[in-house]
Amino acid sequence: MLFDGPAIHKRLDEMAVQITTDYANSEVTVIAILTGSLMFMSDLLRRIPLPLKLDCLSVDSYHGKAQSSGEVTFEQLDVLDVAGRDVLILDDILDTGRTLAAVRTKLAMAKPRSIRVCVLLNKRKRRAIELVADYIGFEIDDEFIVGYGLDFMQRYRNLPYVGVLKKELLEQPNR
Ligand code: IMP
Ligand code: MG
Questions:
Q1: How far apart are the CA of 47 and the centre of ligand 2, in A?
Q2: What is the three-state SS of 57-120?
Q3: How many CB atoms neighbour CB 130 within 10 A?
Q4: Do the Cβ atoms of 51 and 27 come closer than 8 Å?
Q5: Residues above pLDDT 70, as percent of the chain
Q6: What is the model's pLDDT at position 175?
Q7: Residue 10: which H helix or E strand, with range?
Q8: From ligand 1's centre to the CA of 150, what distance in Å?
Q9: pLDDT score for 49
Q10: Closest residue CA from atom 20 of ligand 1
Q11: What is the pTM of this model?
Q12: For residue 144, which atom of ligand 1 is closest to its CA?
C-alpha cells in the first residue's frame, strides 16, 4: 500500500481548495479521462463547491495489453465543444505523458480559453513527452500502481487505496 483511503481524501481536500480558489471567477469545464479517473473525479468534484460543466473522454493506449503501446486512441471522434472555456483535464496518473499530451492537443483544436491538467499521481521519471501537470496529488516512483480507479488488465480499480502491483502479477498476467 502506498496511500490509504484517508490519506487520499486528505490530499483531495487540499487540491479541491486550490482548484476552488483558482476557478472562483470562471465556470470551469472539467474533462475527465476514463476509466482510471472515475474515483478521483467523483471524490474530487464533490469537494469543489463551484458551478462547473463535466464531460468525459474515453482514451486507450493499452489496447487490452499489459503495457502501454504508446499509441493513444479516442473513442469519440468529435472534438468537444470547449471554445472559449476554461478547461481542466483530470486523469488518474501522468506516466509517459503521451495520453495527456494527445488529449491536450485534441482539446486545443477547439480553442478553449485555458487548459490545465490535474492528476492524482505523477511518475516524473517516466516522462517521454514534456508535460507539466498544474495540480498533482502525489509524486510516485517508477512502479506499477493499482487501486482507486487504476487497473492492471481492468482489475483492482475498486480497491479503496493505491498500492504497488506485485511483480509476479506484472510478469505473468492471468486473464
Ligand atoms: P501515459 O500516456 O504513459 O502518461 O499513461 C497514462 C495512462 O496509462 C494512465 O491514464 C493510466 O491509465 C495508464 N497507466 C500509466 N501508469 C500506470 C500504472 O502504474 N498503473 C495503472 N495504469 C497506469
Ligand atoms: Mg487510464
A1: 22
A2: EEEECCCCCCCCCCCCEECCCCCCCCCCCEEEEEEEEECCCHHHHHHHHHHHCCCCCEEEEEEE
A3: 7
A4: yes
A5: 98
A6: 66
A7: helix 5-22
A8: 8
A9: 98
A10: 145
A11: 0.95
A12: 19
Would you state the pLDDT for residue 170?
87
Using N-to-C axis directions, what is the helix angle for 5-22 and 38-45, rounded to 10°?
60
Q: Which residue has the higher pLDDT, 68 or 34?
A: 34
Under 8 Å between Cβ of 75 and 59: yes
Burial 38-52 (b: 16+ CB within 10 A, else e): bbbbebbbeebeeeb
Residue 2's Cβ-side half-sphere holds a number of Cα atoms within 13 Å equal to 20
Per residue in 77-129, pLDDT (tens digit) is 677 889 999 999 999 999 999 999 999 999 999 999 999 999 999 999 999 99
- Within 10 angstroms of residue 73's Cβ, the number of other Cβ atoms is 11
6: number of Cβ within 10 Å? 10
Q: Is 95 a catalytic residue?
A: yes
Name residues whose C-beta falls within 8 Å of residue 36's C-beta, 6 or more positions apart in sequence: 91, 92, 93, 149, 150, 151, 157
Which residue has 498544474 as its cell numbers? 134
pLDDT averaged over every residue in the chain: 94
